[in-house]
C-alpha cells in the first residue's frame, strides 16, 4: 500500500477526538513496541501485549506450537521399553 492510502487507512482507525499530540504519542509507543518486542527476524510474540490483535503474531505462535505438539504426541505414542 502506498503512503497516501495507508495514511488514510490508519487515520480512520484512530479515535476521531485525538489531537496531533495524541496521534504522535501513539506513534511513538508503537515504535518503541517494535524496537523491544516485534523484531523482524524473531519477534517475541509470546510476551506481546498486542498478540490478540496481530494476525501475523498469531500465525507465528501457531507455527511455533505445532512442532512442539507433534513432538509431544509422538513421544507419548511410543511404547515404554523395559530395562
TrEMBL record:
Entries under PROSITE patterns matching the protein: ENDONUCLEASE_III_1
Molecular function terms, GO-annotated: 4 iron, 4 sulfur cluster binding; class I DNA-(apurinic or apyrimidinic site) endonuclease activity; hydrolase activity, acting on glycosyl bonds; metal ion binding
Record's keyword terms, sorted: DNA damage, DNA repair, Endonuclease, Glycosidase, Hydrolase, Iron, Iron-sulfur, Lyase, Metal-binding, Nuclease
An example Gene Ontology biological process: DNA repair
Pfam families named among the record's database cross-references: EndIII_4Fe-2S
Name of protein: Endonuclease III
InterPro entries: DNA_glycosylase (IPR011257), Endonuclease3_FeS-loop_motif (IPR003651), Endouclease-III_FeS-bd_BS (IPR004035), HhH_base_excis_C (IPR023170)
UniProt superkingdom: Bacteria
Family (UniProt): Belongs to the Nth/MutY family.
UniProt KW Lyase keyword: yes
Upper taxonomic lineage: Bacteria, Pseudomonadati, Pseudomonadota, Alphaproteobacteria, Rhodobacterales
Cofactor(s) required for function per UniProt: [4Fe-4S] cluster
EC number of the protein: 4.2.99.18
Ranges in coiled-coil conformation: none
Amino acid at each position: 500500500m502506498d503512503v497516501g492510502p495507508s495514511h488514510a487507512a490508519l487515520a480512520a482507525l484512530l479515535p476521531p477526538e485525538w489531537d496531533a499530540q495524541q496521534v504522535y504519542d501513539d506513534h511513538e509507543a508503537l515504535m518503541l513496541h517494535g524496537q523491544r518486542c516485534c523484531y523482524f527476524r524473531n519477534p517475541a510474540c509470546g510476551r506481546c501485549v498486542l498478540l490478540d490483535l496481530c494476525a501475523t503474531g498469531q500465525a507465528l505462535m501457531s507455527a511455533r506450537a505445532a512442532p512442539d505438539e507433534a513432538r509431544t504426541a509422538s513421544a507419548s505414542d511410543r511404547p515404554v521399553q523395559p530395562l
